[in-house]
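Friendly challenge for the regulars: who can give me the structure tokens for this chain first? No prize, just bragging rights.
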Amino acid sequence: YYSSNVSQSGVLSLNSLPQATTPIYRVSVNQDGIIKLTKNYLDSLGVNFSSIDPRKIHLFSRGVEIPLYIQGEEDGVFNDGDSIIFYGQKLSIRNRAVWNGGDFTDTNVYFLCADENNGLRMDVLDVSPINPTFPVTTTFYSNLTFEVNSVMLCYHFRPNGELWTWAPPLYYSVGGGEKNRSISLTLPHPVLNSDSFSLQIVEAGFNNVDHILDAKINSSSYQRLTFSGITISNLNYSFLQNQLNSNGSNTLTIRIPSSQTLNDYQIVDTISVNYLRTTDADNDSLMIEDGGGNKRYIANGFSIQPLIFDLSNKDAQTDLFIPKRCENASFSSGQITFDYSDTGTARKCFLSSNAFLPLSIEQIESRNLQDSNLGCKFMILTHPDFHPSGSDQEWQNYLSRKSSQFNGDVLWIDIQEVYDNFSYGIFDPTAIKTFLTFAKNNWREFPSYLLLIGDGSYDYKNYLGDPTFKNWVPTMIIEDVSDSIRQGWIASDSYFGDTDNDGYPNLSIGRIPVRTYAEFAGVLNKIIAYEDQTVLPDWRKTQFYVADTYDESWEEEFETFNNYLKNTFAVSPYQSLKVYYHDPPYNGADQDLCASQIRGYWDDAVLVHYAGHSGPSWWGYYNGILSLTATRGSDLYNLPTISSPNAPLPFVVNSTCYTTGFAYQGGNNP
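First reply, four minutes later:
Bragging rights claimed.
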């Protein structure tokens, strides 16, 4: 499904890998902080900069060169004991005009390489504590946001914005007593005085009433705020600093009180706290956010002298910090003292005795997909899991077959090659669309067919915690804000192929949504058996129509639509079969007989059309016709199987809801 009225903006701009005289390395980072790459560590990964002048080393992220600090580069040799140091940031993008604001991953990517030019280095700030008149600062206001994404709401609270919320919801029914939940908030090193601090709860209401939400921190009294309707609202509470616990462990309790006279359904989105704290380190690190001006900072709790990076400046396009290195601070017995002298109005300063390692460092071996000499008739976009070297005979057989069918005009590409060429190495489904748009406008031949290999999900960041899942080749979720009745979101591979944004794909796109090579090999063997079979002429001329039962008059369209298709397309020399669950002998009740008849007709027709209610893994009211769920046992597994030389199985068309919804994660999905 793809709708042209859905916004097409929000696609990352076209970009290329940096030009380099060395291999380019993909450095993946999924947390914020100081990253230190020692020579020994890089050597252990096969990253050898020994023969180059380290002053020529560069670091890029999202098209921006990031300033480095390279310890020991002054002699022009990357020696033992030398290190590459930079401030790493996880990815945080939520403001693009695509699904969920473009929040597809936390993993940012940096390109590390060298060329003949000097790389960008951090400016140095002298923070020597030599100004006794500077006011001493040992406290500041810290802004912390707490978020757990475990439930995705169907409501269009934020069109093309963040949709995940924090379970469990509060379901209050009149007369059922108050509904409450407790949430742990860690607010380290609070100042315990009588000043107030602010706490904001972003709360969603999903029934159309006047909502009530009481909140308290630890043993304080409840405070009450209200909001109305099916909406998301910012609820701003105020508490006292001395109501916080000195150890930093706090409990926020929220409730819908028993005095509420209406059924009230709510769920938390995020919680933000702005409170006064001391400049004591948290696990050897400290982020100070403060106003500008001349100040002396004194911070305690560091095991060794920390590095200090000024992060007050950002790149305007990417929000990546442009750090400066602070030098000449005084350190003694875990306490660091340093002076800031400037006239700015805002300051962000990060101190840390701990540096961490990136998630991974890999040499980039991607082809240049922006080469205009490329082109093909049949293109495959896949993932390394589905062509394991030396153990991929089924894949090789399939490639050989396709090459023969298309006279060698076949090209297969790993998905990371697309990311490296079109989204700065970052996991991003819109990169596939950018890639195909480029190919349409620049390649010598634009593909007519695209096969995607691998499963995908609406849960791009795996908030649901499926240990077996990853977005091998992602799909694109489209939010249809005009749909106020259904969920209003659809997994659309067709989105990728709409290179001119007219609402229609410019090539045929299919997907094999597998998770393992064993699954993939099984599907390929079935495809080959299906293509190689010898079938009877009657099979190619037979269509099979299945309709669900109905309770309401509008549901009669299941049969009406099937009858229209049958009377229009199953005319001589074609013929049709039908099973309508509502009609005798099933009468909307005999599930087993209906399922048995469907199985009996299944391999008699070249095409099956189903109209009715459904889910990702079932057909029919209450899973009533065919299902993979416990309600219907293993109906789908009992359908005729594909085996050479006989595999006369139908092409299935679903005029229904979410059948074949591969983008839904779950063990019962097809």
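The chain has nine helices and 40 strands. Residues 517-532 form the longest helix (16 residues). Your move, everyone else.
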